[in-house]
Amino acid sequence: MLEMINSARQSGIHGTNFRTSCHTLVENGLLNKYRNASLKLAFRLTDDGRERAGEIYRKRLEEEQEK
After folding, report:
1. Phi first, then psi: what are they for 35, rounded to 5°?
2. Residue 13 main-chain phi, psi, to 5 deg
3. What's the pLDDT score for residue 25?
4. Cα 4 to the chain's mean position, in Å?
5. Residue 28's closest CA among 46, 16, 54?
6. Is the N or C terminus of the chain more exposed, i.e. has fewer CB atoms within 10 Å?
7. Residue by residue, what is the 3-state secondary structure of the chain?
8. Which residue from 38, 57, 58, 54 is spatially nearest to 46, judged by alpha carbons?
9. Which residue pairs, CB below 8 angstroms and at least 24 apart, start in 41-49?
10. How many CB atoms lie within 10 A of CB 33?
């Protein structure tokens, strides 16, 4: 996921900062943390996280259309 995010940005996000952000989002109830089938740490949006992400996405679309 970090590689995908960094490929869409001009400057990359450092891995440590990304992981810290993910854990903060878990603490705030926006992500769930779990182990995937290969037992690697993984994250998934909660219902609240999905709702908040949708709000941010719609706002950014509106801002882009205003340009």
Report:
1. -105, 130
2. -95, 130
3. 98
4. 11
5. 46
6. C
7. CHHHHHHCCCCCCCHHHHHHHHHHHHHCCCEEEEECCCCCEEEEECHHHHHHHHHHHHHHHHHHHHC
8. 54
9. 43/1, 49/25
10. 13
CATH architecture of 2-66: Orthogonal Bundle (1.10)
Tell me the one-letter amino acid at 49: G
> What pTM was estimated for this model as a whole?
0.79
Closest CA to 23 of 15, 31, 13: 31
43, 26 contact by CB (below 8 A): yes
Could you report the per-residue pLDDT of 18-59, keeping only the tens digit for each? 999 999 999 999 999 999 999 999 999 999 999 999 999 999
Rounded distance between C-alpha atoms, residue 32 and residue 35, angstroms: 10
